[in-house]
Amino acid sequence: MASSSSSHDSMKVLEQCRVSPSPASITQHPASLPLTFFDILWLYTSPVERLFLYAFPHSTVVFTESYLPNLKSSLSLALHHFYPLAGRVRRSPDSADLYELHYEEGDSVSFTVAETDLDFLDLVGYHARDSSKLRSLAPRLPELDENRPLLAIQVTLFPDHGIGIGFTVHHVACDGFNLTHFYKSWASSCKSRGHDSLVQPAPSFDRSVIVDPCDLYSEFLGDMNRFTADNNPVLVPAAMESAPSNLVHATFTLAPDRIEGLKTLVRSKAISFNCSTFVASCAYLWTCIVKARGYQADIKAHFTFAVDWRKRLQPPTPDTYFGNCLGGCFAEAMVGDLVQENGVITAAEAIGRAIEGLKGGVSKCLSGFFPRALSLLVAECPPLSVAGSPKFKVYDVDFGWGRPLKVEVPSIKETGALSLSDSRDIQGGLEIGLVLPKHEMEALVTQFEESLAFF
Predict the structure, then answer these.
(1) Is 102 in the active site?
(2) 12-227 architecture in CATH?
(3) Coiled coil located at which positions (predicted)?
(4) What is the pLDDT of residues 170-200, one digit of tens each?
């Protein structure tokens, strides 16, 4: 939450309130949604933050008098359709091992309005900038309380220059597909000046579509309970637990022609898997980061990413399903192989093989997830992970002020992940956000630009 007593004295809280879903949400849907095995994976992870930055050449007075009421009322309308986000995650009554999302009429979302004199043009840039400034634009949520809220929102004014809308959500509530659906529905309602403009189709809350024949829920919960008993309640890479103070946030871009060049190279040498845009782009970034960090050649590097299981389950889950439907996927390769001339091919093969392995089915692929994931947290070469997806089309979130100038994931400062999204200006391009110590970021910029010249 923004605060005038934070590390940035430029942040001033103008208003703190709560916004509830418009009436009658609970009469149409179940009050409690049981967590599935996909959800329980995220029970103790850190919240995810997403920040949208827009040009907004108006004063604070104009905003509070002419725009803020509509922003609140349209949020209430959007929450009507996504009512679990206004509730809490809690242990199910009379149960020691079952959890649920629970909403009661009157539950609400924390909504903060703040003003700052931070440099707006600096924050919407692609260059390396102070990561803590971006994080000051996202609200805070409690992480350890089992009966905790799921969503908080912060609107930050840069008077006469811009506006930021920051979301912080506990991943246990749902995945990025659902959240993007929520963002776009709120934005659509706001743009239409308060009409109930749900971006179709409506979310489905039917948890029976997630089948768990091998009881992965009990396996995951048992593994987590053993882990948290060791006083490690939040699953974040060990390298980020004592993060240095000189972290900078930068955005890299890949144009479509560069992506095609990477895919052509990989396909010319490796033909046993589908070299998608995701595989080629992540392979390139993985090799660049390993080189920039200067790891020893004789250790293993790890790359982890979330996989959408909606179409992979039997039977497939509807696209409208509200809740998590993601599972982790792991790739690894020796550092020495990744830093060689054709290291991107090695990286792509490792990621491609991991994706091919998903054909074994969800129970086989996710069983043993926690022991493997936790083992990577203490690896010599910390795992590189991915947050977001270009499929979300985050630059289409328009509240009536035009498309965002920049969309960021500030929480990657905590997780050490790279953020991946569509490009604002180039159809088919990608934007990649990273947070690194300043000297590593400088090395990565050089590595990224020099290597890309060959594609």
Answers:
(1) no
(2) 2-Layer Sandwich (3.30)
(3) none
(4) 999 999 999 999 999 999 999 998 788 889 8
